[in-house]
From TrEMBL:
Gene: ADAP1
The UniProt record lists the keyword Plastid: no
Record-given protein name: Arf-GAP with dual PH domain-containing protein 1 isoform X1
Domain named Arf-GAP: residues: 6-126
Iron-sulfur recorded as keyword: no
Record's GO cellular component terms: cytosol; nucleus; plasma membrane
Subcellular localization(s) per the UniProt record: Cytoplasm
Length: 374
């Protein structure tokens, strides 16, 4: 009897829709919420356990199941669960995958099943209203301390602003929605709710690092920024579909980490720097939490004579890490060195991905700006 039940459950797992986790899309989920009727991965099952009033979980393979529970799973499943709990998810709302941070996955699961935000559209007010204000802890540019700052996001003005004092008339910074990006960086910021916001100031990237103690609050800010970007892009590209626009709302970095670099004359020795590959901008910082990059390199496409090579030219001088990378641009060569062969492989793959992608019309303007930088 137990074997038959197990076989019935495993058959349900192989049904279309149940082969990926209902919440994060991880392959081969072997846990299930027997109160919601969805199949989930081990990682998401841990989050479900934290909301026992809504979801109760069991292992498909290890736990005992009764007939009624198996019947409930058979009548539901991931397709039915999505149709019910995600029916009104806004296009701009970030749906995390298994590779995203714990906070994004937890808040997505709570929003779906506990708060039922995607069944009742009025519950989406915090991120869909086009205006949001509140206090976030912001890292000081010079002293590295986190201080409470008032932030205001206004779609009407097309900007995110922050104020150094609550009653300040003028904002300390105005960040245009057009050039705004937000990405969760818990490890780098040293806080599980750490969010990195970047914008362009005089065509150079400026970083701001913030967090909020409340996970829902910081994820609402993140989705409010995505909503503002979505509405801006809908106006800027009236013919574009939602599917075209959604990938442009926010972006995670292609790769980050330490490399060593040398200057244009390649005689001044190699210095260790923190590198961030953000779309076609390769930025380098003395410290990962610096507000401004020490420099930026534009990485174009192979059609425009950009290539990446393993190793360094034989004439390279100075002491450096063993695993070199040369990026050839139409104007000059950039020399980098990685500490391990694994790092070198990953960086080359990231550069290759960008170089293999044809340039968009607006990227030519960015490239021209880089060429004319003093």
């Amino acid at each position: 009897m137990a074997k038959e039940k197990k076989r019935a459950l495993l058959e349900l797992l192989h049904r279309d829709g149940n082969q990926l986790c209902a919440d994060c899309g991880a392959p081969d989920p072997d846990w299930a919420s027997y109160t919601l009727g969805v199949f989930i991965c081990l990682s998401c099952s841990g989050i479900h356990r934290n909301i026992p009033n809504v979801s109760k979980v069991k292992s498909v393979r290890l736990d005992a199941w009764d007939e009624a529970q198996i019947e409930f799973m058979a009548c539901n499943g991931n397709h039915v669960g999505r149709a019910k709990y995600e029916s009104k998810t806004p296009s701009f709302y970030y749906k995390p995958t298994f590779s995203d941070c714990q906070l994004l996955r937890e808040q997505w699961i709570r929003a779906k099943y506990e708060r039922k935000e995607f069944i009742y559209a009025e519950k989406q007010e915090p991120y869909s209203a086009g205006y949001r204000e509140g206090f976030l802890w912001k890292r000081g540019r010079d002293n590295g301390q986190f201080l409470s700052r008032k932030f205001v996001l206004t779609e009407r003005e097309g900007a995110l602003k922050y104020f150094n004092k609550n009653d300040a008339k003028e904002p300390k910074a105005i960040m245009k929605i057009e050039h705004l990006n937000a990405t969760f960086q818990p490890a780098k910021i040293g806080n599980p709710h750490g969010l990195q916001i970047t914008y362009l100031k005089d065509n150079s990237t400026r970083n701001i690092f913030v967090y909020h103690e409340d996970g829902k609050e910081i994820v609402d800010w993140f989705n409010a920024i995505r909503a503002a970007r979505f509405h801006y892009l809908q106006v800027a590209f009236p013919g574009a579909s939602d599917n075209d626009l959604v990938p442009k709302l926010s972006r995670n970095y292609l790769k980050e980490g330490y490399m060593e670099k040398t200057g244009p004359k390649q005689t001044e020795g190699f210095k260790k720097r923190w590198f961030t590959m953000d779309d076609r901008r390769l930025m380098y910082f003395k410290d990962p939490l610096d507000a401004f990059a020490r420099g930026e390199v534009f990485i174009g496409s192979k059609e425009n004579s950009y290539t990446v090579l393993e190793g360094l030219p034989p004439s390279t001088q100075g002491h450096h890490w063993q695993h070199g990378i040369t990026i050839v641009t139409p104007d000059r060569k950039f020399l980098f060195a990685c500490e391990t062969e694994g790092d070198q492989r990953e960086w080359i793959a990231a550069f290759q991905k960008v170089i293999n992608r044809p340039m968009l019309p607006q990227e030519y303007a960015v490239e021209a700006h880089f060429k004319h930088k003093p």
